[in-house]
Structure formats: structure tokens, C-alpha cells
């Protein structure tokens, strides 16, 4: 049959011709068996020819079918982003993005495999001691400090990022002894990994604070547990300081989170049941309100808003910074009737400077911490000796409640004491037992030895905390009620002024001393404010000219909005309050 042979020759000729364009395979219709064989031969000949260049897959149909085959591998950053999107957004959100952006994210099977193969999974209630040791060894670190209950992370530019040792949810049924058992469990397993846990920090919770007192022996004791048997105990050699109440041997270095401590002190000032007083001077928020109501003062002088004085957010730390600023303290000090309020705000300022501000030197931290301690001790002794004798209450309980009405909460008082003691203890350990006694004597902080000795005797007799419950036996920790700290919490006892009508706050105030573009202020320095003497030409539209103290200045528009704002409306830092505020909007 000559026809198939001629067809074969014709096929080769077509392949060797450069300008030839073979027809697509789909258009060839096989007529018989020989044609099918020749078609197969033709296909092989085309792909074996060096000069032939088959066309790429033509447009959409075949290209869409092989889209994912041609995609490159996903890098680690994209995989991490995909895992975060899946964890935070959920399966529905991930599928929505994955379907609308084809090929941009791995499929769900890949995501599940990545999560299962990841060694950094955190299981609720499971401690990761091995991974913690591996993580610390990568930095060459053998000491760590545990922070519980949403303590803010440290500055990652100074120290390595934090490591999540465990995550667990708790209820209010746990006791202080349960906390001690958990701390000792963490300590024991960390020692086995050659990691020394220096201590623990919490948010001034009552049960945690009671556990700290029991472990440290700060006017408290555990009768059925001897902590001194641990070979990894810290020990310092100190002289007989009448003002230092902490024993030399300690297993942990405890600290109360200073941010929560400051907010507790601020909330005490706002409490409707408290009547803080020192001598014949009252401590009240009215003195700060007078600064806002003073027509001779503008916000540039004090930097306060109405929401700073009546914060609905009990965890608002920024308002604590504003009411303790140097400008506010200077204005408060001008009025002799505000000496009590000035002392209280200065107390909060000392705690912020000693424990929160990162630029404070070690010497200034010690000075500020112990100044706050001695200030509270003097205040408390005055209430014991003077105010108590003038009370007309008949019962001892009513006298106690009336006396504590004029003082800070017991939690805040003991937290300030413990922080100062453990700060000194830690510095002694770091400085190899070289005590900074001369520095403290230089600032005359030791002139109150008699006061400290009296307070020591009072705490020893009145505030001794005993616990006869065995540490590793199951039982109800009924002795929590003996410490009676729950009634001292003012976080839920904010003054009723928050529920009052705020219509007066919403009134328009057209007289902010800004008439005729002139401002009078007591300040001579405008650090932190966008107020300049000269402005570049390309920024003229962002500034306008104004006279401040008869001097020409250029005020930025955002700074002008800041100065004219009387009430800041922002979401709360407290989770529950934030959800309530969001639902109302």
C-alpha cells in the first residue's frame, strides 16, 4: 500500500521545514489503524527534532489546570504568615482568602502538616522544660525569670524575646498553696535542665501575694515546710539593718508588677469609700480638677484631660503618667492646701521612676524605692499613733476599718515593701555582696531607724501570717480569708462620679485662652510638643503661626488638636471593658 509510505515521507518533510506549523493533535482524525501508527510516529518525530520548538500551553484552559504545578515553592515567611492567618482567622477565613487569591497561600492540607510537624506547639497545662532549656542555651543563658498573668514583655533590643513555658486557664478555686506547689514544680524541673529560675512576678493578685509572703517569710511562715533545705538557696551576708525586714536566705526573688501597683494606687485615689488624709491635709482628686477649671491655665501647662481625672478604665496606665508629670507636680506644689495630694502623687512618681522608667540608674532606683517605702511607713505609723487615738469608734473592727480608710490598700503597702526589699536583695547578689549603704546614708534615708523598728514590732505582732496546712496535701486553703486582702482592692470601687452625667464634659468651650491666636503659659520648654520657632517652606501647610508668651511660634495642627481636646475617647486596656465599649459602638 503506497499511500501510508508517502504519508510518512510527507510527515518528515513537514518536521524538517522551519516554517512549517504542525496542526494541533486535537484536529487530526484517525481514519484507520495505519493512520494511528503514523500519527504516533509523527508525534515522536516532532519532539525528537532539535530545531522544533513546541508552542507553550495556550491560554486559559490548560494553563489553569496546571497552575499549581508551575507555582514555585513557598518560602518560610509565607508559611509562617499562612499559619498565623489560619490560627487567628480560622478555617473559614483562610479558605476565603485561599479561594479568592489562587496560588498565593498553601492549601489546608499543607497548613495542617506544617502545624503537626512544628515543635513549638503549646498544649494547655503542659510545661515545656526541654524546649526552654534549648532556647536559653542558644543564647548562652542559664538564669531566667518567670512573669505570670500577662506581664508586659521586656524590650527585645535589650534582652532576648520571652519564651512561653506553659499556658493554662484557671478559675478562682485555686489556693495560695496550689501556687506554691506550681512554683516548686517549675523550680525542680528547671534545675534538672541546668536552668535556675530566679523568681516570679505577678500582677499584685491577692492569692499570689499571699504565696509570696509565705515563701519569703515576710511576716509569714509555713509550719510544715522548711524551705531552707534546698541546696540552690540564695544567701547574702548583711548587717543588722533595722529597716530591712527580709531574711538573708531566699529561694526566689519576687516582684509585683509595678504597672499594676501604680494603677492600684491611682484607683485608691478615685475610691468612693476611701478618705485619704495625712495630718490635716486631705488627698483628693479635687486638687487636680482645680487645675482643669482654672481659667488662667491651659492644657499646655498641665497636659491633663477630663478623662485622666475620671477614667472609666481602671487599668489606664497613661493617665497615671499624666497626673504625675513634672508640670502637674509643680502646679500642685504652689497650693499649700494640696500638700497631701502632692505627697501622694509624688509617691506614685517614685514607683514609676524606680521600677518602670528604663533610663533610671541603679542608685536612683534604690533611692526612689526606699523613699516610697519610708513615706508609707511614716504615714502608717502616724495613723497608728495619732489618728487611732482620736477615733470614737467603740469596737476594734470599726476602728480598723476607719483607720485603713485613710491609708492605701494593704496589698499596695506590702507590694511596695516587697519590691524595695527584693530590689536591694537582687542588687546585692549582682554586686557580689557589696552593699550600697553609703549611698543611702548620703541621702539620709537611715534617719528613720526608730520609725522602722516600731513598725517592725507592729507587723510582727499584728500581721504575722501562719499556715499549718501541709504543702503537698490536698485540702481547702481556708486560711486565705485570714489574710483578708480582697476587701482592700479598690479596682472595683471607683468613685460613683463615673456614672454621673457627662454632659458638662461635652459642652463646647470656645474660650481656651486661644483668642486672637495668643497663649499664655508657665512653661518655658516645650519638649515633646510639636512647637517650633521656624518651619521649612514645604511644611507651611501643616503649621500655623501663634504667639506664646508674646513670642512667635509655629504650632502643628495635631498639637493644636491635642491642646484643645478636653476628653480623650479611646478603647480600654481592660479586656472586658473593651468588649463592652465595642459592643455599644
Automatic annotation (TrEMBL):
Top-level taxon of origin: Eukaryota
Source species of the chain: Rotaria magnacalcarata
Residue segments, region Disordered: 1-59, 475-518
Name of the molecule in the record: Uncharacterized protein
Compositional bias annotation for Basic residues: 13-26, 37-58
Residue ranges, compositional bias (Acidic residues): 475-494, 505-515
Amino acid at each position: 500500500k503506497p499511500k501510508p509510505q508517502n504519508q510518512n515521507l510527507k510527515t518528515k518533510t513537514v518536521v524538517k521545514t522551519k516554517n512549517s506549523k504542525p496542526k494541533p493533535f486535537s484536529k487530526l482524525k484517525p481514519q484507520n489503524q495505519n493512520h494511528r501508527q503514523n500519527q504516533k510516529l509523527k508525534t515522536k518525530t516532532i519532539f525528537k527534532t532539535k530545531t522544533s520548538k513546541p508552542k507553550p500551553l495556550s491560554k486559559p484552559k490548560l494553563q489553569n489546570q496546571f497552575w499549581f504545578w508551575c507555582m514555585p515553592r513557598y518560602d518560610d515567611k509565607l508559611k509562617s504568615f499562612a499559619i498565623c492567618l489560619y490560627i487567628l482567622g480560622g478555617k473559614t477565613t483562610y479558605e476565603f482568602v485561599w479561594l479568592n487569591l489562587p496560588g498565593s497561600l498553601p492549601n489546608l492540607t499543607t497548613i495542617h502538616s506544617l502545624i503537626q510537624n512544628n515543635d513549638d506547639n503549646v498544649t494547655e497545662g503542659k510545661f515545656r522544660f526541654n524546649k526552654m532549656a534549648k532556647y536559653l542555651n542558644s543564647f548562652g543563658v542559664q538564669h531566667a525569670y518567670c512573669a505570670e498573668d500577662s506581664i508586659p514583655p521586656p524590650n527585645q533590643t535589650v534582652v532576648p524575646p520571652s519564651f512561653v513555658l506553659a499556658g493554662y486557664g484557671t478559675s478562682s478555686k485555686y489556693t495560695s498553696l496550689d501556687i506554691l506547689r506550681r512554683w516548686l514544680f517549675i523550680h525542680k524541673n528547671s534545675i534538672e535542665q541546668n536552668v535556675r529560675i530566679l523568681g516570679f512576678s505577678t500582677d499584685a493578685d491577692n492569692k499570689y501575694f499571699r504565696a509570696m509572703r509565705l515563701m519569703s517569710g515576710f511576716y509569714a511562715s509555713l509550719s510544715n515546710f522548711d524551705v531552707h533545705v534546698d541546696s540552690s538557696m540564695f544567701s547574702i551576708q548583711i548587717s543588722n539593718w533595722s529597716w530591712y525586714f527580709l531574711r538573708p536566705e531566699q529561694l526566689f526573688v519576687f516582684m509585683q508588677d509595678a504597672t499594676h501597683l501604680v494603677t492600684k494606687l491611682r484607683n485608691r485615689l478615685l475610691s468612693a469609700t476611701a478618705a485619704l488624709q495625712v495630718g490635716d491635709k486631705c488627698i483628693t482628686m479635687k486638687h487636680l480638677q482645680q487645675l482643669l477649671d482654672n481659667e488662667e491655665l491651659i492644657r499646655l501647662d498641665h497636659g491633663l484631660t477630663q478623662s485622666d481625672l475620671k477614667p472609666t478604665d481602671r487599668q489606664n496606665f497613661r493617665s497615671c503618667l499624666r497626673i504625675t508629670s513634672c508640670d502637674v507636680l509643680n502646679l500642685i506644689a504652689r497650693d499649700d492646701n494640696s500638700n497631701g495630694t502632692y505627697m501622694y502623687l509624688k509617691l506614685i512618681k517614685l514607683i514609676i521612676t524606680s521600677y518602670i522608667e528604663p533610663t533610671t540608674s541603679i542608685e536612683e532606683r534604690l533611692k526612689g524605692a526606699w523613699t516610697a517605702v519610708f513615706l508609707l511607713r511614716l504615714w502608717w505609723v502616724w495613723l497608728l499613733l495619732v489618728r487611732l487615738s482620736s477615733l470614737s469608734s467603740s469596737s476594734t473592727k470599726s476602728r480598723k476599718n476607719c483607720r485603713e480608710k485613710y491609708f492605701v490598700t494593704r496589698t499596695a503597702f506590702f507590694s511596695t515593701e516587697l519590691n524595695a526589699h527584693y530590689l536591694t536583695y537582687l542588687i546585692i547578689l549582682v554586686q557580689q555582696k557589696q552593699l550600697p549603704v553609703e549611698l543611702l546614708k548620703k541621702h539620709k534615708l537611715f534617719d528613720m531607724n526608730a520609725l522602722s523598728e516600731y513598725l517592725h514590732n507592729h507587723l510582727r505582732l499584728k500581721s504575722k501570717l501562719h499556715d499549718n496546712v501541709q504543702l503537698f496535701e490536698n485540702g481547702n486553703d481556708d486560711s486565705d480569708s485570714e489574710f483578708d486582702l480582697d476587701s482592700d482592692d479598690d479596682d472595683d470601687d471607683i468613685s460613683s462620679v463615673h456614672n454621673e452625667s457627662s454632659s458638662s464634659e461635652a459642652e463646647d468651650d470656645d474660650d481656651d485662652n486661644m483668642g486672637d491666636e495668643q497663649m499664655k503659659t508657665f512653661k518655658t520648654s516645650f519638649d515633646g510638643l510639636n512647637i517650633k520657632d521656624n518651619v521649612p517652606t514645604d511644611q507651611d501647610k501643616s503649621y500655623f503661626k501663634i504667639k506664646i508668651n508674646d513670642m512667635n511660634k509655629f504650632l502643628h495642627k495635631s498639637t493644636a488638636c491635642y491642646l484643645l481636646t478636653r476628653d480623650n475617647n479611646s478603647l480600654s486596656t481592660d479586656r472586658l471593658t473593651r468588649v463592652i465599649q465595642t459592643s455599644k459602638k
